Amino acid sequence: MTRDIGDVPAVEIISTAAVHLMSAAAVKIGLAQDPEHERDLDEARKLIEALAGLVVAGAPAVGNLHARSLRDGLRTLQLAFREASIFPDAPGKGPGEKYTGPVN
After folding, report:
1. What count of other Cβ atoms lies within 10 Å of the Cβ of residue 76?
2. Is the CB of residue 54 less than 8 Å from the CB of residue 14?
3. What is the pLDDT of residues 30-43, one digit of tens each?
């Protein structure tokens, strides 16, 4: 069974896009089954930046319950990125931190 995109609520589309970005970023950080072959921190940075922009911009539209979960996932990825980096970014300079502020 398929749905017409016009029938899908915005909160569902925003949440689905965020989950796809989170999943792809996790793989690129090296949190998947084969980290040595899948790790690409440059790609992870781009995905986390896009995710941060979506989460910050979309939070008012999706409501506090959904936004909290998305923010938690984003923060977890930001911390995992910092941990995976050989030379971690300065506080406030990591991926997505221009939108979220420094992550510790």
Report:
1. 15
2. yes
3. 998 887 889 999 99
